[in-house]
Each structure stands twice: as C-alpha cells, then as structure tokens.
Amino acid sequence: MYIYGASDQGRVVIDMVDGYERIHGVFDDNPHIASVLDYPVLGSVPLDFVFDHAVFIAIGDNRIRKKIHLKLKKKKVRFATIIHDSAIFSKRAVLDEGSVVMEGAIVKVNSRIGKQVIVNTGASVDHDCLIGDFVHLAPQCTLCGGIEVGEGTLVGANSIILPRVKVGAWCKIGAGSVVTRDVPDGKTWIGNGLKQKSLLKVSQ
Q1: Which residues are designated catalytic?
Q2: What value does the mean pLDDT take over residues 22-50?
Q3: Across residues 47-56, what is the average pLDDT?
Q4: pLDDT tens-digit profile of 93-110?
Q5: pLDDT, tens digit, for every residue of 73-88?
Q6: CATH architecture of 2-73
Q7: Sheet bearing 193-198, strands edge to edge
Q8: Cα angle for residues 58, 63, 68 (degrees, 5° grid)
Q9: N or C: which end of the chain has fewer CB within 10 A?
C-alpha cells in the first residue's frame, strides 16, 4: 500500500503494517519531512501520479483526513483498511474504506464503522453502534451499546459514552469524560456536561 502522512499517525500506521505489507511509498505535504522510520518521504502527490496500489491516509486530524480523502477520491484511488491482529472485530460488524482498528481495540456485533475512521489503541465499541465517517475514537475510550457518533467527531481518551446516546457531527468529547445524554452537532462535552462553545464550522 501507499501511506499518505509521515508524522505521528504515519509512524503508528507504518509500525503496524510494515511487517506484513509492502509499503510502496510515503507521501506528505510537509516539505521538511524527508524520511519516516527509514522510509523516504516522496513529498506531495504529483498531479499526474497513478496509484497502482491501495492508499491509507495516516492523518490524525479529522478535517485534514476528510480533505485529503476527497482530493484522492477524485483520482479514483482504492483506500486500504487495516485491522490489527490483536483487535477483536465481529464478523457481523462492518468496516468501511480507509479505516483502521488498532491494537487491542474491540468492535462488537452489528456495529458499523464509517469511512476514514480511527479506532485507536484499546478503544471499545459495543454492539449496534453507528460510527460516522472521519471519526477518531481515541485510546481506551468506551462506547456502550446502541450509540451513534456523527461525522468528524473526536471521542477523547478514556472517555465513556453511555448506551443509546447520540453524539452529533464534528463534536469533541474531552478525555476522561462520561457522556450521559445526547450531544448536538458541533458541541464540546467535557467531564459530565456540555460546554457552550460550538465547534461546528459552516464551511464543512
């Protein structure tokens, strides 16, 4: 596969896959990054470049990952999906294109993980959850059964979302929070309650 992204998330993904998957090239738009984990960084993707293998976008920022996904989709590339060997992923769950399920993560029956989602180390997604595109479930977060998480939302490390709660699009759930009720689009939840400031941008 090709890897798009040579910073933090790029190192994590390369370290996960290069023991069994040949990496044909690493791209990054930052001209100051020359190499990553002994792989040369090829710079930005040339306009006329034709991807002959699948691409994985290794970018932690949800908005940037969406932007790159839309740009590459115009080139009709095929996006790779990754499930680490130590993860538990139900045969009755669905993982959409470009998503990753990292070490020790759990995804249970009838859950659906959207496009370009990061299910990070040790995250737990219980039964019948619906995770939208471009979501990041940070390490050790726990999603109880029947939860919905909207597009682009960040669920912070060690946070807990209680059963059947709906979290809107482009929300931010603070690390260590306990989410007890629905969260509207663009809102931030810290600890046990909502913050008033909205993160939703009209330019989405």
Answers
A1: 127
A2: 94
A3: 92
A4: 999 999 999 999 999 999
A5: 988 899 999 999 999 9
A6: 3-Layer(aba) Sandwich (3.40)
A7: 82-83, 100-101, 118-119, 136-137, 154-155, 172-173, 187-190, 193-198
A8: 55
A9: C
CATH superfamily membership of 83-189:
Hexapeptide repeat proteins (2.160.10.10)
| pTM exceeding the 0.90 threshold for the entire prediction | yes
pLDDT of residue 199: 46
CA distance from start to end of the chain: 29
Q: Give 83-87 contacts, CB < 8 A, sequence gap 24+.
A: 84/16, 87/119
Structure-block tokens of residue 86: 């130590």
What pLDDT score does 194 carry? 82
- Structure-block tokens of residue 69: 């996904």
104, HSE (Cβ side, Cα atoms, 13 Å): 8
Going from N- to C-terminal start, the domains of the chain cover 2-73, 83-189
State the Cα–Cα distance between residues 171 and 33, nearest whole angstrom: 31
Q: DSSP letters along 161-181, please? A: E-TT-EE-TT-EEPTT-EE-S
- DSSP letter, residue 112: E
